[in-house]
TrEMBL record:
<keyword id="KW-0067">ATP-binding</keyword>
<keyword id="KW-0813">Transport</keyword>
<protein>
    <recommendedName>
        <fullName>Cell division ATP-binding protein FtsE</fullName>
    </recommendedName>
</protein>
<dbReference type="InterPro" id="IPR005286">
    <property type="entry name" value="Cell_div_FtsE"/>
</dbReference>
<dbReference type="GO" id="GO:0051301">
    <property type="term" value="P:cell division"/>
</dbReference>
<dbReference type="GO" id="GO:0005524">
    <property type="term" value="F:ATP binding"/>
</dbReference>
<dbReference type="InterPro" id="IPR017911">
    <property type="entry name" value="MacB-like_ATP-bd"/>
</dbReference>
<keyword id="KW-0547">Nucleotide-binding</keyword>
<comment type="subunit">
    <text>Homodimer. Forms a membrane-associated complex with FtsX.</text>
</comment>
<feature type="region of interest" description="Disordered">
    <location>
        <begin position="1"/>
        <end position="27"/>
    </location>
</feature>
<dbReference type="InterPro" id="IPR003593">
    <property type="entry name" value="AAA+_ATPase"/>
</dbReference>
<dbReference type="InterPro" id="IPR003439">
    <property type="entry name" value="ABC_transporter-like_ATP-bd"/>
</dbReference>
<keyword id="KW-0472">Membrane</keyword>
<dbReference type="InterPro" id="IPR027417">
    <property type="entry name" value="P-loop_NTPase"/>
</dbReference>
<keyword id="KW-1003">Cell membrane</keyword>
<dbReference type="InterPro" id="IPR017871">
    <property type="entry name" value="ABC_transporter-like_CS"/>
</dbReference>
<comment type="similarity">
    <text>Belongs to the ABC transporter superfamily.</text>
</comment>
Amino acid sequence: MPVLTPKETTEKSVHFQEKETQGRSKSTVPMVELRSVTKTYHNGSQALFDLNLSVKQGDFLFITGPSGSGKSTLLKLLYGEELPTQGEVIVDECNVATMKGDRLSFLRRRIGIVFQDYKLIPQRTVAENVTFVLQAQGYTRKEILRRLEPTLKLVGLLSKAHCFPDQLSGGEQQRVSIARAIVATPPLILADEPTGNLDFDNSWQVMQILQKLNSFGATVIVTTHDEQLVRRCNHPVVQVRNGQLYRK
Ligand SMILES: Nc1ncnc2c1ncn2[C@@H]1O[C@H](COP(=O)(O)OP(=O)(O)OP(=O)(O)O)[C@@H](O)[C@H]1O
C-alpha cells in the first residue's frame, strides 16, 4: 500500500502568506484514505480494483498512469462525484460514501478542484469567476474582497481581474481556475490533469503555484501524464495501472 511520507512542513489551513514552518512536527494525520476501494461503473467497466492509498495532511502526491487507467475516477471518489462499489473513501476524517446533502456540500467546500478544461464562466470576469462560489456560500462582501486580492496576486492575475476568460491565454485561464479553487482556502486541493492543455512554461507556472500552496500547508493531489513535469518536481509519485496503484 503506498503510504506516503509526510513533508516536514504541515499546517491544517491555508493562508496566502509565507509561514515559518521549519521545525514543526510532521503530521501523521491522513487527509485522504482509500481502503480496499473498487469502482465498477454501471456499464460494467471496472476502473479501480481493491485499491489502497493514504495521503497525509500536507503531502504532495502525483498520480500518473495511462489513459483510461482510473486517475480521474480516483479523484471523483474523493470529492463524492462517484461512489465506490466496495471499500471506504475517507477524506478529512469523513466517509465520503455516507455523506449526503449539506454534509457532502460542506465537505466539498474543504476541497479545491482544478480541472484540465478550466470550466470558467465565459460571461463573467476573472474576479467574478473567482468569487462566484464564495457568494453562493454566503460570504459577506467584505470577506469576499478581503480574499480576492491575495488570491489573484498568488496566481499572478491581479492586473487581469476585470478581463473575461476569452481575453486570457490558456495558462492564464488555468490560473483563474486555480484561484477559484483556492479562494476559500481549502485544506485539500485536487487537480485533474491541470496542465493537460498547456505548454511547458505554463505547466511549470501552474506547478509552482500548486507547490506554493502545498508549502503553505495544503494537501495537494495532482493527476498528470507529464513525466517531464513530474521529474522536475521532487514529490512522491504513484501510478494507476489496471485499476491498482503502484509506487514509482
Ligand atoms: N461515467 C463512466 N461510465 C462508464 N465508464 C466510465 C465512466 N467514467 C470512466 N469510465 C471508465 O473507467 C475507466 C477509467 O476512466 P478514467 O476516466 O478514470 O481514466 P483516466 O486514467 O482518468 O483516463 P485519462 O487519462 O484518459 O483521462 C475507463 O475504462 C473508462 O472508460
